[in-house]
Amino acid sequence: MSIPYGQTRTRVAARHALIAPDGHVKSNVPGIAGAATVILINEAMGARFAQWLLTFEPGGSASLPANEIETAGYFETGGGTLTIGGQKKRVAAGAYFFAPAGEAWSIASPLKNTRVTLFQKKFEPLAGVERPAAIIGDAANVKGEPFLGDPDARLQVLLPDVPAFDLAMNIFTYQPGATLPFVETHVMEHGLLMLAGQGVYRLEDAWYPVAAGDVIWMAPYCPQWFVAMGKTPASYLYYKDVNRRAF
Ligand code: UGY
Ligand code: MN
Questions:
Q1: CA contacts within 13 A on the Cβ side of 242
Q2: Which residue, of 77, 78, 195, 199, has the fewest CB within 10 Å?
Q3: Any residues with Cβ below 6 Å from ligand 1, and which?
């Protein structure tokens, strides 16, 4: 059903954004074929990273070159054959990966309606620390740990939390009624995809109802808070820049 009178929940502000799925518009991106590609967040918005949503048709493919950009990805639905440098693996929904800067990577032979979210940033090497290696994993094998002691708000940390990595990709799952314990205000930037359920997100001084499929950008120092609502758990996938100097 189309929403009458030009309404949408989408809001794009200077320091945060909520992108509801009704506003998605596809881009043609070199290297991507047979897939709807939506660039949800990037530098044009004011962010220092990019967040994409790829929805593949059978026979579609993504092939990204080796350059200074690193990519963390998550298969929300479907599956496909993932190749990163010398590693090749058939993966299914729930799979995640990290393709380091300097390595070409691809997705081939996707199932119909395979949805993959990508987070990309320019890699910042750390002097004296070896560059991070490619990773292919399954979120089902990553334990959700209570967040700041709350067993009803659990965090799955998908990538190693070590100095070599300058980005994090996590899944946060809340039982109905659970919240972020306080209004976070931090230097790290976030890109976020609601995977399931619903709730209310506070971004700066506005409160937004959000549900599965919504995407959020939080600029550095954007005050943020979440409460899960409804009768089923809410979960979201998110990106964060980590482990580098203040200046
Ligand atoms: O890792 C985080 O900063 C996380 N707690 N933020 C969030 O969920 N908005
Ligand atoms: Mn945060």
A1: 15
A2: 77
A3: 172, 180, 184, 190, 224, 240
